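Recap from last week: sequence in, structure out.
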Amino acid sequence: MPGKTFQTIGILSRPRREQLSAVVPPLLKWLEARGVKAALDEKTAAALPVGTKGMSQPLVADASQLLLVLGGDGTMLAAARLAAPRRIPILPVNMGRLGFLTSFTLDELYPALEETLAGRASISQRVMLQAELVRGGSVIEAQCALNEAVIHKGAFARMIQLELGINSDFVCRYRADGLIVSSPTGSTAYSLSAGGPIVHPHVEAFVITPICPHMLSDRPLVVRDSSMVEIQLTGETDSVYLTLDGQLGIPLQATDTVRVLRAKEELQLIQPPQKPYFEILRNKLKWGEA
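Predicted structure tokens:
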């Protein structure tokens, strides 16, 4: 980000209140000393002394040139949907548990901010998904996601039936608990738990992973991210949902089609330059440990 200036940094968070009350006040003083304003979301402001005002997260994103995310991957995923269409970068700091995406630690917060304000931050461009719900021939809902779009059953313990098409070519019919379409970034999330492969973030691909398929021969599929992935509901459709990044849930109806494409916007994710991707994988997945 050479030459980019940050007049306002938005702070989005969702850790425990006592963590925020210890971290945020000195952070605000640090930013103020450098002439940078801070825009706080309501959850961050609620953990600070009475009278501190917060804004809704979309308003924080509108007012900022950078989003500082204090939390876990869930907080990061919500922030990604705000940052990508506004073309502003995210600096993620892990205050959650696993933290595949929030790869900076609290100890690295201020050095990372120094590098970012100086224009020396390491940016990883991450592909976003665009999921469209088509009903009666019309797109009635369109949302972006960083990790995955999932079609899955609701409360009933029975399989659903789906038809998969790629670029209008029929691929197969699934009987399964659901189907995941993930980005490379999302390949280490739900898709990995369902048996999908790990895909490097810079590989231009989607991963399509069935969830508990009836046929053991139904395996994960990797396709180019220039593809149009179409999934149509067939058979009984009681309590079936489209869920994006595990946060946005949309109920589906019979004959609905879900279309997944590469979004026009990419996420600018600031990453620690001293932590290569495979080092993060080794640490998070405990590779090589007895």
